[in-house]
Amino acid sequence: MQNNKLYVGNLNFETSEDDLKKLFSAHGTVNEINVMERKGFGFVTMGTPEEALKAKEALNGIDVLGRKIRVDEARPPREKGGGGGNKGFRR
Questions:
Q1: Counting C-beta atoms within 10 Å of the first and last residue's C-beta, which end of the chain has fewer, N or C?
Q2: pLDDT, tens digit, for every residue of 33-61?
Q3: Would you give the DSSP letter of residue 89?
């Protein structure tokens, strides 16, 4: 794993940052947690890529508040495409 930032998906909407901190800190240093409220996913930044891999392997697929979470390496944000929603539109 090259990145120390993890995507955590399929979260119960009641899952808090504290819940994730307790889970992930058992596998290394947690530097940052962002839970997207009412979206069912979030991001956890671990201290090192090795700790991130350890947490991913240990936590992917476990039950958290009644849902099996998905833990994977976070991908960089997609670039926003420029131009065009209204091709051919003229004023």
A1: C
A2: 999 989 999 999 999 999 999 999 999 99
A3: -
